[in-house]
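Attaching the record inline, Q. Sequence:
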Amino acid sequence: MEEFTVTLKTLTPLWTGDAWRRNQEIKPQSIMGALRFWFEVYCHAVGIEVKEYNKENVNYKEFRKKLEEKIRQNSDRELFELEDEVLAEMRISLPSRIFGCTGWRGRVFIKGIQPIENYCFGNYLNLPEVIYKDKNNSSADWQVCKRKEVNDLKKKNKNKNLHFWYFSIPYFGGKFEVTFQVKKEIKDTILVPLLNFIQYYGFIGGRNNLGYGRVKIEENLTNEVFKFSQNERLSDKSINEAIEEVNGFDELLEAQNKKIKLWKKEKNANSFSFQGVIKELIAFKAKERLKISNNEERHYIFGSTKRDKYNNIQGPNATKIIPWINPKNDGNYEYGFISLVGLQYFGERNEKK
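Structure, as predicted:
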């Protein structure tokens, strides 16, 4: 294993809280979860098989037997290469070979996380606790309230369909170091390109539907090309291979190909404020959501938090249209949406197959 440290700077708030909305540290599992999620997204988009890792299982006795036979027959080849070949023959998908599954530890780990410049777990952007508006009135202004006031507002406005958005506070802002332990064979071929992919297009942590989790890597990591083993039968692929920039929101909803789509919205007067940008994106997305009458399609594309009487979420939960915010050096923002709609066999829709 090789140690490898990168410095990440938050571009938008970072939230890695638990089920009780406590956010007191940057959790390694949130970083690892983001790495795996976005690697799986990339693999889907370039045609690499992805399986549900919790259903993949490496029988270690079988693995050792096959590996020992490979070593006897190929004494001149590297152990890493032979291990990967055996796992591929056992039908273990590439994401699980990299990040692990039952019976296999994976090849990337986090040794430690250290904040080095911390605006603290607080509210340095002065975000409101809650914003809300009548979702049937797209021209209405956003209103602000405290979380404890939400129930009273719902009771007082029975005839209005109020839509509430909760900003998770406290959140982390600043810089932090992540030290990885990684197999040297995949440091530059998989991990570095993946980190670059996330800093350009992806997110870390939760609350991505509020634009949270955008980060920048302080070091100049030049490798932006994934180099896959011959087991994937793929040539080297740029991180941009999976991305298609589109010209309008409607194109984000199209599923003709498996690309990840990015639409950069035209900026307006709010583009110098994170709060202004995310309000604009949420309102725009809510307006577009109303245009889809089919419940299942709408829930798949935009997500759903509706629960049944047993408190179970009905329908797909995670949104496939994610606000994408990128601060520029002049203090302005470019922004729009990332769409995973084209990945027809990804996430909840895959579970239905």
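The chain has three domains: 1-56+92-122+169-241, 128-166, 246-353. Residues 67 and 73 are 10 Å apart (CA to CA).

More tomorrow.
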